[in-house]
Specification:
Layout lengths: L37 H12 L10 H8 L4 H29 L5 H28 L2 H8 L6 H19 L3 H18 L1 H12 L4 H31 L6 H23 L8 H19 L2 H4 L36
The structure holds fe (ii) ion (2 copies).
The site of one fe (ii) ion (FE2) has 5 residues, from helix 9.
């Protein structure tokens, strides 16, 4: 079982040679002059530089006018996807401090705090959108869409349970599962939703929502890199904790659920998106994310099956979705 950090441990040891990402003996002091993980220092600059607030994003009144002109399939997808994104950002805000309780590197805990703040801002951004675009009754229906939609409910429940298991029983195995679950949430679950808003914006619809989503995506990309780095460091420092079978089964389940949900909510009637492109994009993205954490699965030539050899792209977009990471952000060397 993992042990929670003490708030203040006067007999702790903050020296770099004895510092580990978890299971260390931190005093609780944030001595950020002494940094063991150089990628964390670079990430701090990028994450702070990304500061934004949703109230400053203009144009939502035009989105409110446009909302009533959306095709029925677009309107349904808009509501369902915002509901799912709201859920993801809510549980991220709530659960990230649970990780921090066991992280014994101050430079990494600093980033987790910034991430929690950003997830809360993302929740505020959906609030800001819904306040302007829909009326109070519809707003509530969007927040609680999972009460009526079985596919969404089962999805939310599955994700929430992985975090709950870790919170209730913080074993090494549950910590690792929650870590991979977090990585999948940040790196895979948001992206069909993002692709939908890109497609709407390309068709000159819901432009301000798309603008807001772009700010959110910029933050999410840093969260992807943060958790990829944490996973890599854990694999290096605690190889016994790294379980390739768990990575594989969680990835397979995540891909299955993401395709099921995305096809369910997007269908074939949103111009620019089809069931097929959604599936291809999800599989391609999952393989890209596996490569980021350079898993044993990859070394054993396992990957998510794809039915296309070329990366999927939104064919109608003016430019392909940018999946590149901010240049300042570095991945830690592969173990
Ligand atoms: Fe977020
Ligand atoms: Fe995030």
């Amino acid at each position: 079982m993992l042990k929670k950090n003490q708030i203040f441990n006067p007999t702790g040891d903050d020296s770099l040679e004895n510092r580990t990402i978890i299971k260390g003996r931190t005093t609780g002091l944030f001595n950020l002059n002494a940094v063991k993980y150089p990628w964390a220092k670079a990430m701090y600059q990028v994450m702070i530089g990304n500061f934004w607030v949703p109230e400053k994003v203009s144009g939502l009144t035009e989105d409110a006018n446009m909302y009533s002109k959306l095709l029925p399939a677009e309107g349904r997808a808009y509501r369902g996807i915002i509901s799912f994104l709201t859920f993801l950002d809510s549980i991220q805000t709530v659960n990230l401090p649970n990780f921090s309780d066991y992280v014994t590197s101050p430079e990494v805990n600093l980033l987790l705090s910034i991430q929690s703040f950003q997830e809360a801002i993302h929740s505020q951004s959906y609030t800001t959108i819904l306040e302007t675009v829909v009326d109070a009754q519809e707003r509530d229906q969007i927040y609680y869409y999972w009460r009526e939609d079985k596919v969404l409910f089962e999805r939310n429940e599955y994700i929430g349970q992985i975090y709950q298991d870790f919170k209730d029983t913080p074993s090494d195995a549950n910590f690792f599962r929650a870590l991979i679950g977090n990585f999948l949430l940040e790196s895979l679950y948001f992206y069909n939703g993002f692709a939908f808003f890109d497609t709407l914006a390309y068709n000159s619809k819901m432009i301000a929502t798309g603008r807001m989503i772009n700010y959110i995506r910029r933050d999410e990309l840093t969260h992807v890199v943060l958790f990829a780095n944490i996973i890599k460091e854990i694999r290096q420092e605690f190889p016994e904790m790294y379980d390739a079978k768990v990575v594989r089964s969680l990835f397979e389940e995540a891909v299955k659920q993401e395709i099921l949900w995305s096809q369910h909510i997007l269908g074939d009637d949103v111009p620019g998106m089809t069931r097929q492109t959604t599936e291809q994009y999800t599989r391609w993205l999952a393989n890209d994310r596996l490569r980021m954490i350079k898993t044993l699965c990859i070394l054993r030539r396992w990957s998510i099956p794809t039915n296309t050899s070329r990366p999927w792209r939104i064919t109608t977009a003016r430019r392909p979705i940018s999946l590149s990471l901010p240049s300042l952000i570095t991945l830690s060397p592969a173990p």
